[in-house]
Design a protein that fits this description.
Layout lengths: L1 E5 L4 H10 L5 E3 L11 H11 L3 E4 L13 H22 L3 E6 L22 H16 L3 E6 L2 E2 L6 H9 L4 E5 L3 E2 L2 E2 H16 L6 E4 L6 E2 H15 L7 E5 L19 H7 L6 H11 L9
Helix pairs in contact: 1-6, 2-3, 3-4, 7-9
Bound molecules: NADP nicotinamide-adenine-dinucleotide phosphate (NAP).
NADP nicotinamide-adenine-dinucleotide phosphate (NAP) binds next to α1, α3 and β4.
InterPro entries: dTDP_dehydrorham_reduct, NAD(P)-bd_dom_sf, RmlD-like-bd
Cofactor: Mg(2+)
Pathway: Carbohydrate biosynthesis; dTDP-L-rhamnose biosynthesis
């Protein structure tokens, strides 16, 4: 298969590249400077040149708080450009795998969200991502939309790296304990996407929207505790901070986050035979890759 990954420099984009290197697929994963997905003619040119058999859209405007004051650019990248990719895939008669988010939900439920549960995004980011899902659905039937949550990896910016960086300068960290979700390793999501691509290659066609996140829900506070437990066990961290639990109202953010965004992943398990690994195991791997004192530099 000829696989085109957009947003090649993001967490998911880089994890996909690491895994694609070990496959027989031909692939390209241009970063934003090589393929800006908001540029319709650039997409068309790239398709003509590379002739992909499948596209994974890992590009997104992901700055959740900044999006509140940059609505236009968030909408352009997360909604309009998702539609451009969908239309171009439709024209080329190839499927599009598009990534979305748990932030399409308002977080008022107390049991894991199923794919068909009512969406009600609370932020510009969530609103533009939900509109992006609709743009993809409208553009072509041959799509897979994967909603995921709390993505971390050895690359880019994420909660794990932020915690490790802050531990170097603060003996006490206050972390929100009343928001619940599932941390997801971008590498595990990349593995799941590649498994789906293999099945698409052999004719599997369960198009539609799915949830994928790592197994076992936690709070940001619980996640932080495990990060430092694991880092401590690996012996690579000099300063283990004290983690103090606070509530969301003690840590006001510009964008509103759902209090509960645990995703029910049974549909993707059933339709695509995908397994959800426990995030703690993946976290151990990521920590062993990261140099703790330098956690922001990858
Ligand atoms: N991160 C999370 O916690 C999280 C949670 C739920 C869902 N998701 C979804 O998961 C997917 C992957 O997220 P991620 O964590 O890998 O995000 P990420 O690390 O922020 O990567 C996104 C990539 O998209 C690129 N990009 C932005 N605008 C672009 C444009 N106009 N054209 C081409 N590329 C563009 C960025 O380029 P630059 O590197 O140049 O900025 C960046 O490399 C996204 O759809 C996101 O919405 C993420």
């Amino acid at each position: 298969m000829r696989v085109l990954v957009t947003g090649g420099n993001g967490q998911l984009g880089r994890c996909l590249q690491d895994r694609l290197k070990n496959t027989s697929h031909e692939w390209q994963a241009p970063d934003q400077s090589s393929l800006d997905i908001t540029n319709k003619s650039a997409i068309s040119y790239y398709f003509d040149k590379f002739q992909p058999d499948v596209v994974v859209n890992a590009a997104a405007y992901t700055a959740v708080d900044k999006a509140e004051s940059e609505k236009d650019i968030a909408y352009l990248v997360n909604t309009v450009a998702a539609g451009y990719l969908g239309s171009q895939c439709k024209k080329a008669a190839i499927p599009l795998i598009h990534i979305s988010t748990d932030y399409v939900f308002d977080g008022k439920m107390t049991i894991p969200y199923k794919v068909g549960d009512e969406t009600n995004p609370q932020s510009v980011y969530g609103t533009t991502k939900l509109a992006g899902e609709k743009a993809v659905q409208t553009a072509l039937a041959e799509h897979i939309i994967i909603r995921t949550s709390w993505v971390f990896s050895e690359y880019g910016n994420n909660f794990v790296k932020t915690m490790l960086r802050l531990a170097n300068v603060h003996p006490v960290l206050k972390v929100v304990g009343d928001q619940y979700g599932c941390p997801t390793y971008a590498g595990d999501l990349a593995d799941a996407i590649l498994q789906m691509i293999i099945q698409i290659q052999s004719g599997h066609k369960s198009w539609g929207t799915y949830h994928y996140c790592s197994d076992q829900a936690t709070s940001w506070h619980g996640f932080a505790q495990v990060i430092f437990d694991e880092a401590n066990q690996q012996g690579g961290i000099e300063n283990i901070p004290q983690i103090r639990l606070i509530n969301t109202d003690e840590y006001p953010t510009i964008a509103k986050r759902p209090l509960y965004s645990v995703l029910d992943c049974r549909l993707i398990a059933h339709e695509w035979n995908i397994k959800m690994p426990y995030w703690r195991k993946s976290l151990t791997q990521v920590l062993s890759i990261l140099e703790y004192g330098n956690a922001n530099n990858k």
